[in-house]
Amino acid sequence: MVTKRLVPWLIAAEIALCCSVETHTMSSIHTVFVFAVVAAVSVPPVHVLEFCQSTDPDCHSHDTFRSRWNKSVSNLTQNLDRFSISCKKLMESFPVDEVDGDFVRTVKNCIFSKSIPTPLKGPLRLAAVSKDVIEGILDLDLALTQSDDFLGFVSGSQLLPGSEPLTHRYGGHQFGYWAGQLGDGRAHALGQYTNRRGEVWELQLKGSGKTPYSRSGDGRAVIRSSVREFLCSEAMFALGVPTSRAATLVVSEEPVFRDQFYNGNMKTERGAVVLRLAKSWFRIGSLEILAKSGEVDLLRKLLDFVIEEHFTSINPDDPDKYLVFYSTVVSETAHLIAHWMSVGFAHGVCNTDNFSLLSITIDYGPFGFMESYNPNFVPNTSDDEGRYRIGAQADVGLFNLEKLLLALSPVLSGKQQKEAYMILKGYADIYQERIYELFKAKLGLQGEEEDDGYIIALLLKLMEDTRSDFTMTFRELSELSDQQLQNQDFTQTWALEDLSSHELFSDWLGLYLQRLSRQNESDVDRQNRMKNVNPRYVLRNWMAESAIKKTEINDFSEVELLHRTLSSPFVTQDTAEKAGYAARPPQWARRLKVSCSS
Ligand SMILES: Nc1ncnc2c1ncn2[C@@H]1O[C@H](COP(=O)(O)OP(=O)(O)OP(=O)(O)O)[C@@H](O)[C@H]1O
Question: What residue stretch is flagged as signal peptide (predicted)?
């Protein structure tokens, strides 16, 4: 039997390794070695949601449902001429830098600069499309994506009538230091779209050419990073993690040079462009640059806009509205990072310019899903010091929120600043509470028992010692019945096979099974609940790499398979099994490296 004397040791070890807390304000995060998934049930097509609410009596009739379904599908826009997006609201709300040309410059007193995408060299190919985004968010008929007009639109070579693209000026703290003006150096906002549900989405191209913010960059994105951004945005959505979305991926023949070598020679890569969407692309860095430059009126204007458009429960006349806004961002950011941890997602570059004010995941660069459980997992080979290692993400969130507080300071009174600081101090508790909930759900633990934290902590300790796979350990625990677990027959479950090699495994299993036996539910119910929060498939680097290799020779089949698989990550799929997506990663996967270069 595992002695409880181990508890302080385990907790201390996990504090040190997984969630080491570097600052005073975080000293209360301790049992946080918790990783888990939000109960993201894969979302059915929007038409079903809209037309078959459970309260709708008509939907009990098959014919009525079918006719409504057909009508809803035919309501999708079939002609791009009727698809209307516009940057008008953004342009009317803020001063816009109208200086002609994309020469690199320091911009002052503006939130946006006008800039036109530079078409990529053709032939252009539509490598991937998210049906969910095209139909469910943009109300477009999927058939439309086959047209040349559509390809022109999503690649940036053809602007829709009236479209006046914008690029956003922002700054940011990168790897702990203020980096000054950054901005959209390779992204263009094409416009906002209000869909039939009344949601406003901002469409942005990434990789669409130079802008006033390109600094020394070429304004391009390579196939490699674009495939990863497309796949991961959609995969995170399906996992239930707040994220920007990706509509399309277009690949070109335009040569793009990065620091990538193949057989000792510099490899020429090809440019690609992703059409991505978010309700807003404003970041912590959007406010920071205004505060740093003393542009307080504009800071207030941007804050008021963000609050009015995206934080609608905040009363715009409330004298404490900025404080309430800050409090919301603090708790939503804590929740977001807890979500990341629960699926083993390491963002890779948690700079303040990559932290959204809406607390959604943005900028899919050198991210990684942790395979062997390791709190020191660093997905980005350019991050020598492991600043953004997975176990430090909660700390980094705190650092970034501290920078947000500093950016808000010019519009807060002295009393409000003190209150904001108290709110920031509460971040650790919010994070801890959320992550504890998520990990309890991952283990199927209902109610509250004294040992729950210990059961989670000990499991993670065993996983760390045996380097067992994070995703599959939880998934396999979900898929086996109590009896199968009891028998410890792990020949078909490779992660549990690894885990069970630990000398304390049987003790842990005993505790866990006893805990489950006190729950008043069937084994099947427990398994189903767990399967809904523990994905069978995540975007492992080797899977992305394999799809990238094929995409580079214009074979898009694997991107399509991965996209389909990851759209239902909680459901076992034959094709995915055949592709080995839930199997032990291949040997060559160990050599894979992902850097900032993209
Ligand atoms: N190839 C490039 N050309 C021009 N600017 C670039 C290029 N790559 C990155 N940048 C700029 O460098 C900064 C940091 O890059 P980072 O990789 O974090 O952002 P990104 O991936 O380009 O954009 P986003 O955060 O919008 O996804 C940003 O201002 C970005 O626009």
Answer: none
